[in-house]
Amino acid sequence: MAGALILTGCNGNGKGAGGTTDSGADASATKAGGSGGDATGTSAVGKKPSATVSAGSSSAGKAPRAVTVASKAPLPTLPTASSATGAADDGCDHKMPISPDEVAVYRYTPEGGSLSLIVKHGNWGCGTPDSDGAPFETVGKETFIPMDQAAYVTVTNPIVESTENQPIGVQEFLDWLESHPNSGLVFTYHLGADGAIDRLDEVFTP
Questions:
Q1: In angstroms, rounded to a whole number, what is the distance separating the alpha carbons of residues 206 and 122?
Q2: What's the pLDDT tens digit per position in 147-171?
Q3: Which of 11, 37, 166, 169 has a CA positioned 20 to 30 A from the CA of residue 56?
Q4: Does position 11 have pLDDT exceeding 90, yes or no?
């Protein structure tokens, strides 16, 4: 009878342990299953929409931003007309005043009993790369400047075959003007006390 009680007690403890173990296992399984199911469900339900949303926001959001950035990109700066002109500046003053002591000589006249040169005033313009030098640009009408019969005159090419000024007589100079009217050769001149030219020097031009 004592053996039966021991056996019964063992069986009761065993059952109790087994029951506890079984219920614990069942609870663990349930808990694990429940939590696993919940975790899996949450993962499946949560991750899928968030992935979809992020993909949608990525494709729908980034493309407009790229277009916006591209539309706001600065355009390259093109050279303006003024800078091109500044780059091509030849250093020549295109608004030079009329030269006070230079004239283009065309003819002469002895009218009124005195000698006068028929001239035009002007200034030196701006030469071009394919030219030999700057041109003398005349302005206004022809005018008369009295000239002293004893004036000192020097000339160069084409009046004489020289690039250096050579002195000649007034009459020789007048003869050349008569045979080559309207040549427009440029001379520097100086007026004497009487207002007549007392010195005349040709300006050599190539």
A1: 19
A2: 999 999 999 999 999 999 999 999 9
A3: 37
A4: no
Closest by CA to 104, choosing from 88, 118, 90, is 118
Indicate the SS3 state at residue 203. Answer: coil
Residues 6+ apart with CB under 8 A from 153: 167, 168, 169, 170, 173, 199, 200, 201
| Cβ burial 170-200 (10 Å sphere, 16+ → b, else e) | beebbebbeeeeeeebbbebeeeeeebbbeb
Residue 33 burial (CB count, 10 A):
11
- Rounded to whole angstroms, how far apart are CA atoms 198 and 153? 8
Q: Using one digit for the tens of pLDDT, what is the confidence trace for 66-105?
A: 444 444 444 444 444 434 444 455 567 666 688 999 999 9
Q: State the distance between the two ends of the chain, measured CA to CA, in whole angstroms.
A: 153
With 0.70 as the threshold, say if the pTM is over it.
Answer: no
> For the stretch 2-21, what's the b/e string if a residue is b when 16 or more beta carbons lie within 10 angstroms of its beta carbon?
eeeeeeeeeeeeeeeeeeee
Residue whose tokens read 């283009």: 104
Taking the C-alpha atoms of residue 20 and residue 43, their distance in angstroms, rounded to an integer, is 32
Q: Say which residue, 65 or 183, is predicted with more confidence.
A: 183
